[in-house]
Amino acid sequence: MAGRAFRFGVNNVTTALHEWQEVARKAEALGYSTLIAQDHFANQLAPLPSLVAAGAVTSTLRLATLVLDNDFRHPAALAKEAATVDVLTGGRLELGLGAGWLKSDYDKTGIEFDAPAVRLERLAEAVQICKLLLGSEESVTFAGQHYRLNQLDALPRPIQKPRPPIMLGGRQRRMLSLAAREADIVGISLLDPRGQGQPSPPSFAQKVAWVRGAAGERWGSFDVHVNASLVIVDGDGEEAVEQAAARSGRTPEQVRDSPGTLLGGVAGIAELLEARREQYGVNYYVVQGRVMEQFAPVVARLR
Fold it and tell me: Which of 240, 289, 280 is nearest to 262 (CA)?
C-alpha cells in the first residue's frame, strides 16, 4: 500500500450555484482530484444534481458523494441517477454510499431510524444492486430481504467501465468490514460520538486492522480515505487544537495524533502523510473548501 498514489479531495457545503461552481473550478486548478458532495437534510445543495453542475465547469475533476444515505433512496432509483450523472459528467462519478448515521436527518423527515444491523443489511443489498445495475449490460433480477427487482433494465449505461467506483465508509467493525470486502474506496470515519458512561471508541489503528482483516488479499487494491478536519499549514495551530479538544472531549494530544489533524509546514505535513500511508495505508484525504488554497502546496508536493 505504501506505493499507492495520494489523492486529495475538497468538500464544500453551500446552496449558491456560483460559489459551488467556483469551488469546483478552483479545486481542479489547484490539482485536487475530487470534489465532494455531502448528503444531509441541511442548508446544502442536493448531492447528485450538484455534481452535474460542477461537472459542467470542469474537465478532469472527479465528482464524489461522501456519502449518500442508503435509506433516503431506493437503490434501483439511485443506480439510475448515478449512471445518469456519470454520463452527464463524462465518466467522472465516484459513488459513495453509507448506512446512515445522523439521527436528526431521520427525526426531521420521519424516516425510520432502524437498528444498525438492519440499516447495514439494507446497505449491503443496495451495494449489490448498484453493482449489478451499473455493471451489467442486461436486465437485473434481485431477491433480497429488503429489496426486490424483476427484470429491471440497466439503463442508461455509465461511461466508466466496468462501472463507476463505489466508496463505502463508516466507523464500526461491521461497516468497515463490508467496505473492505466490497468497496473501491474505503472511508474510515473519525466521528466517534460517545456519551457519558459509554465505552471508549476504537482507535484508528484498530479500525485499520478491521479493514485489513476483512480485506484479506484485497488489501492494497483500494484507496483508504479519511477526512482532514483540522488543517493549518505554516501557522500556529495550538489554539485550534485546544478548541477541537474542548469540542470533542478529547485531550490536545489525542487531537494532534488524529489522522484528521494536519499541522505544520509543507514538508512536515508531506512527511507525516507519507508515514501514515506506510503505517495505515491511508492515501486519500479530503479537506474543507475553506482551507484548499492553504493546503494546495502539500497537494502539489505529493500528487
Answer: 240
pLDDT digits (tens, 9 = 90+) for 242-300: 998 888 888 999 999 999 999 999 999 999 999 999 999 999 999 999 999 999 999 99
Angstrom distance (rounded) from CA 162 to CA 135: 5
- Helices 116-135, 173-182: crossing angle, 10 deg rounding: 10
Distances (CA, A) of 177 to 120, 122, 183: 11, 15, 10
Domain ranges of the chain: 7-228+268-302
Which tens digits make up the pLDDT trace of 110-141?
A: 999 999 999 999 999 999 999 999 999 899 99
Sign of CA dihedral 234, 240, 245, 248: negative
DSSP conformational letter for 70: G
User: How far apart are alpha carbons 46 and 70 in whole angstroms?
Assistant: 14
Question: Strand pairing partners for 11?
Answer: 36, 288
- Kindly report the pTM of this predicted structure: 0.95
Angle at which helices 204-215 and 266-280 pack, to 10 degrees?
50
Instruction: Record the cell numbers describing residue 80, joined without a space.
Output: 439510475
For domain 7-228+268-302, the CATH architecture is Alpha-Beta Barrel (3.20)
Q: How far is CA 278 from CA 192, 224, 301, in A?
A: 24, 12, 17
CB 146 within 8 A of CB 122: yes
Residue 41, exposed/middle/buried by CB under 10 A (0-12, 13-18, 19+)?
Answer: middle
Q: What amino acid occupies position 215? A: A
Total Cβ atoms within 10 A of residue 206: 12
Tell me, what's the pLDDT at 118? 98
CB atoms within 10 A of CB 144: 15
Which residue type does 288 have? Answer: Q
